Amino acid sequence: MFLYGETGLIPNGIKDLFGLEKVPFKLGGVSGILIVHAYTMYVYFYMTVSSAINKIDPSLEEAAYNLGASKFKVFWKVTFPLLTPAIVAASLLVFMISMASFSAPFLLAGGYRVLSLQIYFSKINGDMEIAATQSVILSIVSISFLIFMRWYQNRKDYRMATKGIGAHRSEVKNPFVKWILVVSGVIAVIILLLPHLTILLLSLVPDGTWTWQTYPTVFNIENYRLLLDDPNIWKPIKNSLLLAILATAGNLVFGVFASYLLVKRKFVGKSFVDILVMIPWALPATVIGMNLIFAFNEPNIFSFGNILVGTFWILPLAYFVRHIPLVVRSTNAVLEQLDDSLEEASRNLGAKWFYTFRKVILPIIMPGVMSGTLLAFVESVGEFPTSVLLYTLSNRPISIEIMNQLRMFNMGQAAAYGMFQIILIALVLFISNKFFGVKAEQSL
């Protein structure tokens, strides 16, 4: 909104530069929602598909080239079919996240009505029956899409016989194509970084100094000083980190073994279980939060006789439930490429199942596992819709603290909190990529 909205930096900058009477464009409506969704959700395709590309044995493509196939034919007949599980996994996640999206429609929809917002408005108006009906409709649409995509994916066998040798980079030799790729990459990086740079800019603008001007005129670190002088500043940051670690650890363990059972084992009700695993993304986050309130507002066997609502543990449980599909679908994408002969060979040599899983299967699927796990962590750190229903003062995460600052019109301090969140996520991603990326490559 601060960057591309009606009062945003870029539209008003263009208006002032060319002397226009009104801004040439503004982010809003259906187009605004689509742009925000594309910007925030492309990462699901990037991480899932890149993990699958990394697991394609280059000898398959080389064999096709040796048989006289063109680059396009090799991609269409060899590479693309092997990427289908990853593309399907990312498509499912993006479709379901879009269906249940709340923040973008809430801020940008205007008069455009979407189901996730209608559920919210029905709830705040006390029409719980209408809200429940709308939730069921939303779930039916998402589950129907899940069934269709599973049918499409299961039409063919995408496994390949390989030792897990990753793809290698090939140099672009055409200087014109290389120049086009460099320029496109620079433009893409700038576009992707602009929202983050805007948050950094806002965090350096003292509250009350940027009113009618197109661009701020005062910059200092006052917002950071005010936050750091507050003894409670680190509480939301520590909470977010601890909650995300607990939830992501559960997602990692549960997701890997659930994915293995769904892909490599046959049992009664397998398709039904697969659908159940994806349900958390089919439902709006607010619906999941309300269901957890109803489920754990009194002692039951699943909470070991305790009431979880109003305690610290309700939030990591909510994050865990919400993000199960991320790890499962990302792991599925690489497991479905893995030929059963590798596991069978290990078992024939006398290895136990767990040893085979730990020494043979897990190293090969590690890129997909880590992609899903990191996505789950990032989503947990920034989770808002479920947090706003379930948090308490003692376990409030950073997303809630940002909302509190915005409610008090402390835009600069809210942006400073946002920078802390960005730095936290960036550090975790950097460390994970350095450690787990190298470990995964060495284990292969």
What characteristics describe this protein?
single chain, mainly alpha, 444 residues, MetI-like fold
Structure description:
The chain is mainly α and about 450 residues long. It has helices spanning about 10-20, 30-55, 60-65, 70-100, 105-110, 115-125, 130-155, 175-205, 220-230, 235-265, 270-280, 285-295, 315-335, 340-350, 355-380, 385-390, 400-405, 410-444. The chain has one domain: Orthogonal Bundle (MetI-like fold), CATH 1.10.3720.10. It starts with 8 loop residues before the first helix and ends with a helix. The model is unreliable at about 440-444 (pLDDT under 50). Pfam families: BPD_transp_1 (PF00528). Its main location: membrane.
Distance between the termini: 45 Å
Can you name the CATH architecture? Answer: Orthogonal Bundle
Q: What form results from the Cα inertia axes?
A: globular
Tell me the Rg in angstroms.
Answer: 24 Å
- Please count the helical segments: 18
Number of domains: 1
**What is the mean predicted local confidence, pLDDT?**
81
The percent of residues in helical segments reads over 70%
Beta-strand content bin: under 5%
Say which CATH homologous superfamily is assigned.
Answer: MetI-like
What's the topology here?
Layout: H1 9-18, H2 29-54, H3 58-66, H4 71-99, H5 103-108, H6 115-124, H7 128-153, H8 175-203, H9 222-229, H10 234-264, H11 270-282, H12 285-296, H13 314-335, H14 340-348, H15 353-382, H16 385-390, H17 398-407, H18 411-443
Helix pairs in contact: 2-4, 2-15, 3-4, 4-7, 4-13, 6-7, 7-11, 8-18, 9-18, 10-13, 10-15, 10-17, 11-13, 12-13, 13-15, 14-15, 15-18, 17-18
